[in-house]
Amino acid sequence: MEVIELEENRPVPLLGLEIISIEGVREWNQNRVCSALARDASGECILSLWNQEVDVFQEGDFIVLKKGWCKQYRGEMQVSSGRYGKIELIKRPQKIKPQIARNNIPQTNLTLFFRHAHLRILTSLHQPIQGRQHQREPP
User: Against a cut of 0.85, is the pTM above it?
Assistant: First the structure.
């Protein structure tokens, strides 16, 4: 199922989402709850996190909602684990620590990779081809 297929007051059998942002935690009827903005390839929706779910998930996490529930609240589709569902963490992105270059511009490992690949290509272009002797043709 995708976000675009969500229907009000209907079950959500299976939905994969990425958590974009999480709002502050609030108390409601002796429960802790927070709203998170989540998306898939088809669109965005609000994901309600309840009690222990509040502590488990972070921004950037990829999750799967199984046997959840969808409702409309203030004009937006809102999904949660409901009574019988659960939310599983699929992937938590690794934080890449930027490295400072000589010119004090932070660079990630990916930019360093491309810089080194570019240098290898340049140096290989300036090296003579081995096994081949360059001969001048007679005038």
Answer: no
Task: Identify which of 23, 20, 10 has the alpha carbon closest to the alpha carbon of residue 68.
Answer: 10
User: Could you tell me which residues come within 8 angstroms of residue 85 by beta carbon, excluding any fewer than 6 positions away?
Assistant: 12, 65, 66, 67, 68, 69
Domain count of the chain? 2
At 81-135, the pLDDT tens digits run 988 999 999 887 766 555 555 555 555 554 554 455 444 544 554 555 555 555 5
Looking at the structure, tell me whether residues 86 and 103 fall in a common domain: no
133 in any annotated domain: no
Residue 137 lies in a domain: no
